[in-house]
Amino acid sequence: MSRRADRRFWVVLGCITAVALAWRVTYVIWQRGRIPLNGDAAYYHWQAIDLARGLGFLDPAMYEQYGRVTPSAGHPPAYLVYLAAVARFVGTSETTHRLASCLLGAGAVFAIGVLARRVFRRDASGWLAAAFAAVYAHLWINDEMHMSESMYVLTMTLAIIAAYRFWDRRTLGSAALMGAALGLAVLSRAEAIALFPIMVLPLALLMRDRRLLDRLKVATVAGLVGALVLAPWVVHNLTRFEHPVLLSNGAGSVLMVANCDSYAEDTGEYRGTYRGTYVGYWSIFCAADMPERIRAYFPDDRANELLAELGPIAFPSGHTTHWFGDESTHEVAWRALGVEEMRRHKSELLTAVPIRVLRMWDFFRPLQNIDPLNSELEGRGLWPTRIGYIQYYPLLALAVVGLLWLRRRRALVLPFVAVAVMVTITAATTFGITRYRAPVDGLLPVLAAGGALVVVDAVRRRTRAL
């Protein structure tokens, strides 16, 4: 009977996953051609194709437009390698890559169901969590977007499953598996590396039945295995850029577009990031007038060094651009400019940073986040974005119920809290955007399923008492 019940769980979970995949595929085909391929999505698409051709990790824009072979590490490689395999063996169209992302999204639905069953020890919690994840718009939107969030949600969920497996067994082998799974999540998005100090180390130290030396040994094993997973990518980066690059070249550009004062020349309207209409968000206008601001902010020697790092290229037309060259040199200049802007706006950061966090959690100007930020600027579409927000707040409320129920029973909640802390730190140090909350959106159905069952059980008990 136990085996039969176990088989029933997997069959039902598989059916829910199949429905989730069917909806994702239907949506991508239905919306085919809606989103122009640009920005990060174009980067993933074309770099994956170049990688499938054997050209390596190079800047796709430089290669496609100017024929220049420029090394690139704008993003960690997991999603790119996956898309490259699809391009090599299946096809290279945008639709093909978006459909391939649907497989990742459906895989995440399955993993979410497995995690919920483990956390709440009930088959129903796994089925309900998978059902929530199947219909939650903030998850299935990612598959159409041609971005790494589909991979990130899947790998992060697998890492949390591995963390709970470690907590159950508390062996060096399970610690190694946790480190490897978390390393894979880092290769999906670099900020996940924060979970080594804020999740892995505390988990090891919480084993009060073990000697301190044994706890540190467990943390060390997890960290070393995670480092081994990251090592090929890190070593590859260290051999091909002018300045040292570890996981990605993205931090400098993020700091640059997240920190500036900017005003429209014709109207004087504020277009920066520290106050105004879009406070706490990023601004494309922060990328304007970089040479001028560098000369104004830094001594002449330092300014000349940073201008050289921008890699100016003179075109036959006489136009000079400061956007192309070695990505690592760009990173140095962009990061220096972003940090200097923060230094010059310390007092405004005291209000901007909390707003970034509240915006990411959708508790600051949520209607603005819906339209125009997510629906237009992020390209998610108006009605899918609205559905996502309608679903988000009830899921969040139920997730809080589920988390409190686990805490009251002294069950492990650290992995969930650690992921929430990680995305909060990410928003605080960069800018508030719903997409940065993707791993939390992946875990909300887990806790919400448990919370919903807690509410249902309470209602049943009260009904029986009456």
How is this structure best described in words?
The structure is a single chain. This protein is an all-alpha fold and 466 residues long. It has one domain (2-260, 348-465). 70% of the residues lie in helices and 1% in strands. Strands 1-2 form a two-stranded antiparallel ribbon. A hairpin with a 5-residue loop joins β1 (313-314) and β2 (320-321). The protein is globular.
How many domain regions?
1
Mean pLDDT figure: 92
The helical percent reads over 70%
Tell the overall outline: globular
Give the low-pLDDT segments.
none
**Radius of gyration from CA coordinates:** 23 Å
Q: What is the CA–CA distance across the termini?
A: 34 Å
Q: Total number of β-strand segments? A: 2
Biggest sheet, spatial arrangement of strands: 1-2
Helix/strand class: mainly alpha
Main pleated sheet? 2 strands, antiparallel
* Share of β-strand residues: under 5%
| Helix segment tally | 20
Structural descriptors:
mainly alpha, 466 residues, single chain, 2 strands, 70% helix
Task: Give a brief rundown of this model.
This protein has helices at 2-30, 39-52, 60-66, 78-89, 94-120, 123-135, 137-145, 149-169, 172-186, 195-205, 212-238, 250-258, 290-297, 300-309, 327-344, 346-360, 366-377, 382-408, 414-429, 438-465; strands spanning 313-314, 320-321. With 466 residues, it is mainly α. Strands 1-2 form a two-stranded antiparallel ribbon.
